[in-house]
Amino acid sequence: MQTATLSASAASAPTTPAAQRLHPSCPICGSRLLTRLWEVDGYPIVRCGGCSLVFVHRMMGREELAAHYASGDPVYSDDANRDCLDYYYNRLRGLIEARFSQPGKIFDVGCSSGWFLDVMHGWERHGCEIVAADAENARRQHGDRIFHGAFEEYSAPHGYFDVVTLQDVFDHCPDPMAVLSKCRGMLKEGGLLVVKVHNISCLYAKLAGPGFYAIIPPSHLFYYDRGTLGLAAARSGFEVVQSKFIAHRLRLSTVFSRLSRGDKKSVAHRIHRALAGSRLGNVSVLKNLHDIVTILAVKRNALEIEDSTDVA
Predict the structure, then answer these.
(1) How many domains does the chain fold into?
(2) Is residue 74 part of a domain?
(3) What is the DSSP letter of 210?
(4) Residue pLDDT, tens place only, 147-176
């Protein structure tokens, strides 16, 4: 699902009665104090008064969302973009391996073509991917350890993995707490969860408001920051041990693709098309606007969770 990015402008708001159901409360903290922020392409966006989580108020089912993930993001998954993605992947690998004395078993949720798994040399590498073409690419390198389908459909072995990663995936999930619960069940005691998402509290997002490039419902359903990620992790039996704003490398043409938010009529998209494949467009730049946050969280055992609940 990493590559399944939908244009906000191209997405049509659902019209069936079932699609009009609204979240009665915050999916993370349970508060019913929800304040309407914006409406983006027919999708109401709200902020929770209890924990500050920002999310699409309308409840979206997996079946309803499936059509939006029929194909991947060609800009993201282009082979020419691989070296840019590897810049982040190699830094994440360093953070993960610093916590383990030797390679173990790793599962990448929404593994796209398997490029992150490719850099995890020596590990037993597994993943799942909803986009058929990307899953097939990943299986060429990693075989049957790649599951083609939604993470919710994956038959997860209990307590098998040392690391589970969700990169550019968690904000797509319609039931985030269920996803974290499943990840916890897959991990060994003391296992590591890695989540990378856009940061709704960065200065860029505050200035841009509903024009922030990551606000593209129904592709992105939830908009997190360090606080709401930490709360979701804690309520799912994890302890956040590290939180990082890791720089990303982007080609200039990709920068304008992201700024266009998929709107092919926008000036940004026209600039992207003009730069695509050109020498100038292929120039890469480092970006770190604190607009993307990565957290590392450790699975707590049942006794630790019970003790923390008693204290609370």
Answers:
(1) 1
(2) yes
(3) G
(4) 999 999 999 899 999 999 999 999 999 999
Q: What share of the chain is helix, strand, coil (3-state, %, to 5)?
A: 40, 25, 35
Instruction: Give the pTM.
Output: 0.85
List C-alpha distances in Å: 5 to 100, 163, 262, 284.
Answer: 33, 25, 9, 21
Looking only at Cα atoms, what is the longest distance across the chain?
A: 60
pLDDT tens digits for 25-81? Answer: 999 999 999 999 999 989 999 999 999 999 999 998 777 776 666 555 555 556 666
Sign of the torsion formed by the C-alpha atoms of 179, 180, 183 and 185 = negative
Residue 280: inside a domain:
no
Within a domain: residue 171? yes
Mean pLDDT of the chain: 86
Domain enclosing residue 227, as ranges: 17-247+288-311
The CATH number assigned to the domain holding 58 equals: 3.40.50.150
Give 13's DSSP letter: P
